[in-house]
Structure formats: C-alpha cells, structure tokens
C-alpha cells in the first residue's frame, strides 16, 4: 500500500496512520507513564538494595558493589570480606 495514496479529500494513508498513532499514543500514555517512572527511578532503588559497601584490602578501592559480585571492580581481587 502506497503511503501517498489519497483516502479522501487531501488526506493520505501516511497522514492517517500518523494520526492513528497519535491517538493510540494519547490513550497509551497514562498507562505508560508509571511504567516508565518505575523503569527510570525504580531500577536505581533495586540496584541500591542489592549493593553493599566494599573496601578492597588489596588496592584500597572503596565503593558499592553488587551483593552478588565477589570481586573488586578495580583490581579484580576476590572480595571475601563484604562490609555490610
Ligand atoms: Zn581492589
């Protein structure tokens, strides 16, 4: 189907699809906003919950690493003593 096909008057298929997409977007938006909000702000919270403070005894690196990560991100030394 050619997008330049005129449906009626001067409205083409392409223009009609654009407005259909706009209308769908308007109806989807209230449902999408909380999801997007969770995606942007919720992820950080989850990551913080799964990180622990860690000070490397090998290279002195300090910071938060994953609770499930067992290695120093700087020198790759095994993070045996996780300071929670
Ligand atoms: Zn280290």
Describe the structure.
- The protein is an alpha+beta fold.
- 44% of the residues lie in helices and 18% in strands.
- The protein folds into two domains: 1-47, no CATH class; 50-84, no CATH class.
- The chain has one helix spanning 13-49; strands at residues 6-8, 11-12, 51-55, 62-66.
- The strands form two sheets. It has a two-stranded antiparallel sheet.
- The radius of gyration is 26 Å and the shape is rod-shaped.
- Bound molecules: zinc ion (ZN).
Short structural description:
With 84 residues, the protein is an alpha+beta fold.
Number of strands: 4
**Total domains, how many?**
2
- Output the radius of gyration: 26 Å
Class of secondary structure makeup? alpha+beta
Order of helices and strands: EEHEE
List keywords for this structure.
single chain; 84 residues; alpha+beta; 2 domains; two-stranded antiparallel sheet; 44% helix; rod-shaped; binds zinc ion
In terms of topology, how is this protein built?
Elements: E1 6-8, E2 11-12, H1 13-49, E3 51-55, E4 62-66
Bound molecules: zinc ion.
């Amino acid at each position: 189907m050619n997008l330049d096909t005129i449906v009626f008057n001067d409205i083409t298929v392409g223009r009609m699809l654009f407005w259909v997409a706009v209308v769908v977007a308007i109806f989807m938006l209230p449902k999408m906003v909380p999801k997007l909000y969770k995606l942007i702000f919720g992820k950080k919270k989850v990551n913080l919950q799964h990180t622990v403070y860690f000070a490397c005894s090998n290279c002195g690196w300090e910071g938060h690493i994953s609770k499930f990560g067992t290695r120093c991100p700087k020198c790759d030394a095994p993070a045996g003593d996780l300071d929670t």
